[in-house]
Amino acid sequence: MNTNLSELFSPYKVKNRVIPNRLVAQAMEVNSASMGGAVNDIVVERYTDLARGGWGIVFLEATSVTEKHLARRNGLVLNQNNLDGFKRLVEAFKKENDSILFIAQLTHSGRQSGSFSKKVKAYVDDQEEIPVLSEKELDLIQEQFLTAIDLAKQAGFDGVDVKACHGYLGGELLRPLNNRSDKYGGSVENRAGFHSRIIETVSSEASDFLVGTRVSLFEGIRGGCGTASENEIIEDFGDMIKIINCFVEAGADYLNISSGIPSTTPLLTRPMKNGSFYRLSHFRYTKQIKDAFPDTLVIGSTYTTGEESCLEFAAENLSKGYTDFVGFGRQNLADPLFPEKGLNNQESINYCTLCGQCSKLLKNDENVYCKTHFPAKPAI
Fold it and tell me: What's this model's pTM, rounded to 2 decimal places?
């Protein structure tokens, strides 16, 4: 490929902000917070490195709105007790580079909570040992998201991502499998309602603060997101496009498209070596949403899998209008300075080798880092 990279590295306007380029550092859990989900020096260093790299948008790793339900022992938690640490994090990030959008991804781990925590789920299924959340409990979780969003504003973030992907509670609510009989299940509007109400509350304040969501368009499970009904397995995006339309009508500023559930269908989420089919599927998923919602900003995923050709894939999809932004996950662990090097000295880039070691660290609930390019383990 001999794709022109100029559009990829050109400034772009988002609301009233001009950002450096179209490169996005996707949320990557590094599982390195202190007790209670507090920000520490390791977390600050991780994100100041990304700020130094000159990305257009950086997403903070999945940050829980509650201490009671956690996917990682050392995951971040945004609450009043930890607010000062998040303020320090944003201040350090902005001091390094205040032209980048720094967006906090907020989550509730639901049934993906670790064995050390409390698992809960959105609907009745054969995992009888996991309790189903009541309507009142979901009301409370919705309020926890809104409280965390207020704290994110106080900390100085430029926006929030209401996580709806990768098998967490937010994504589980969207599935055709969610046949709850209350306001949180059944119809498209009910299944989308949890996120739509949060998005609408934030967007109605008419500020420069961004709100959007990362969605697994296709989960690869029977009755999951991207299927037509609770007993279907093949891709059919009609239902998900209706769901996403609810988010857009509520005022979502952007849509961040992913796929799969890492614990169940990992190759869909993060393709490995020789996984070109899955990479092309991600490109196709993103194009489907961009075609359906041409006036909403769309972020595509899995460009890391292009390895040495990743910038060319990114520039090609951007130039063809398949996406507005290009997202890199594992690559931002392998080289936080990737955008700056891509613009000025591509030969110095540390490309992700798709070795899967970072994913194994996360699966084992260890501190996550790139063992290939940064072999020294960070210490909490």
Answer: 0.97
Closest to 86 in 3D by CA, of 24, 141, 157, 27: 157
Q: What band does 367 get if pLDDT is binned at 50, 70 and 90?
A: very high
Token couple for 323: 């996406």
Asked if residue 378 has pLDDT above 80, the reply is no
3-state secondary structure the chain: CCCCCCCCCCCEEECCEEECCCEEECCCCCCCCEHHHECCHHHHHHHHHHHHHCCCEEEEEEEECCCCCCCCCCCEECCHHHHHHHHHHHHHHHHHCCCCEEEEEEECCHHHCCCCCCCCECCCCCCCCCCECCHHHHHHHHHHHHHHHHHHHHHCCCEEEECECCCCHHHHCCCCCCCCCCCCCCCHHHHHHHHHHHHHHHHCCCCCCEEEEEEECCCCCCCCCCCCCCCCCCCCCHHHHHHHHHHHHHCCCEEEEECCCCCCCHHHHCCCCCCHHHHHHHHHHHHHHHHHCCCCEEEECCHHHHHHHHHHHHHHHHHCCCCCEEEECHHHHHCCCHHHHHHHCHHHCCCCCCCCHHHHHHHCCCCCCCCCCCCCCCCC
pLDDT in tens, 182-222: 999 999 999 999 999 999 999 998 789 999 999 999 999 99
Question: From CA 282, how far away is CA 26, in angstroms rounded?
Answer: 14
> Which pair of tokens denotes residue 84?
């000062």
Torsional sign, CA 161, 163, 164, 170: negative
Contact indicator for 326, 38 with CB cutoff of 8 Å: no
Distance, in Å, from the CA atom of 262 to the CA atom of 139, rounded to the nearest integer, reads 27
Q: Which residues pair with 164 in a beta bridge?
A: 215
Beta strands 325-328; 23-25: pairing state: parallel
The pair of three-digit structure tokens given for residue 288, joined into one six-digit string: 């489907």
Pairing verdict, β 17-19 and 12-14: antiparallel
d(CA 61, CA 358): 14
Q: How far apart are alpha carbons 367 and 293 in whole angstroms?
A: 38
Which of these, 60, 76, 15, lies nearest to 157 by C-alpha position?
60
Phi, psi of 103, rounded to the nearest 5 degrees: -115, 130
Can you give the pLDDT at residue 67? 97
Interatomic CA distance for residues 156 and 9, integer angstroms:
25
